[in-house]
Amino acid sequence: MRLLLVEDDLELANGLVHTLAQSNYAADAVHTGRDAVAACATMPYQLVILDLGLPDEDGIETLRRLRQQGLTAPVLILTARDDLKDRILGLDAGGDDYLSKPFAFGELEARIRALLRRGSSLGGVRCFGGIEFDSTTRAVMINGGEITLTARELAVLEILMLRPGRVVSKQQLVESLYTWESEANPSAIEVFVSRLRRKLDDAGAGVGIRVLRGLGYRLELAPHAAE
Fold first, then answer.
1. Does position 226 have pLDDT exceeding 50, yes or no?
2. pLDDT digits (tens, 9 = 90+) for 49-95
3. Measured between alpha carbons, how far is 100 from 105 in angstroms, rounded to an integer?
4. Which of 40, 163, 187, 221 supports an S-S bond with 225, CB 3.0-4.6 Å?
5. Percentage of the chain lying above the pLDDT 70 cut
6. What is the CATH number of domain 125-226?
7. Could you give the CA distance from residue 66 to residue 141 in angstroms, rounded to a whole number?
8. Which long-range CB contacts under 8 A does 18-25 form with residues at least 24 apart?
9. How far apart are CA 125 and CA 139, in angstroms?
């Protein structure tokens, strides 16, 4: 799950990026409205966390530009402004929720889950074969039993579950697993896929991850499960 954090307080931004990573969210951080618009033009984010007090322009204007540009992902407004007028302006400009500073991270995380759940036509749960993946709680069930995956394995499964039966390139997996500031390791993708495939097979998920050399990976039903 890839998020964009638009926050001009560098210390707060760095802290949130690292804390979100502990909850298996890959978050890119930018610090101006201009950079937020540019980032959303090049990367499909599942959610945007937007501060209104940006150095180059008001966050309300940034939000309007993002929506005009075609951003459909939910936007959580995160700001020190707690005036009713500001909340109304933010929501009218295209915001989906509003959280005032200071805040508890647990509440921020709960609001992120709620927005992702609200934005999903499947209520946040995707099913394929014996797999049930809840993108909001990050839980993976195989035939009714929960299995434990590492953050990287979970990220691989998530992007494959978004495109079952379709090829996902290695570059798409790299973009899902790594933020701008982390050191991307494309060769490690093969290790994550191999470990994930083994865990799914051991749990009897009834699916396989086919390696298509030079193209990428595809999540498909195992022969016996497709019958």
1. no
2. 999 989 999 999 999 999 998 888 899 998 887 778 888 888 888 99
3. 12
4. 221
5. 93
6. 1.10.10.10
7. 35
8. 19/105, 21/151, 21/179, 23/109, 23/138, 24/138, 24/151, 24/154, 24/155, 25/1, 25/112
9. 9
Q: Are strands 216-221 and 167-168 parallel, antiparallel or unpaired?
A: antiparallel
Delimit the domains of the chain by residue range: 2-119, 125-226
CA distance 203 to 210: 17
What is the CATH architecture assignment of 2-119?
3-Layer(aba) Sandwich (3.40)
The secondary structure of the chain as a DSSP string is -EEEEE-S-HHHHHHHHHHHHHTT-EEEEE-SHHHHHHHHHHS--SEEEE-SB-SSSBHHHHHHHHHHHT--S-EEEEES---HHHHHHHHHTT-SEEEESS--HHHHHHHHHHHHHHH-TTTTEEEETTEEEETTTTEEEETTEE----HHHHHHHHHHHHSTTSEE-HHHHHHHH--SSS---TTHHHHHHHHHHHHHHHTT-SEEEEEETTTEEEEEE-HHHH-
Phi/psi of residue 153, nearest 5 degrees:
-60, -40
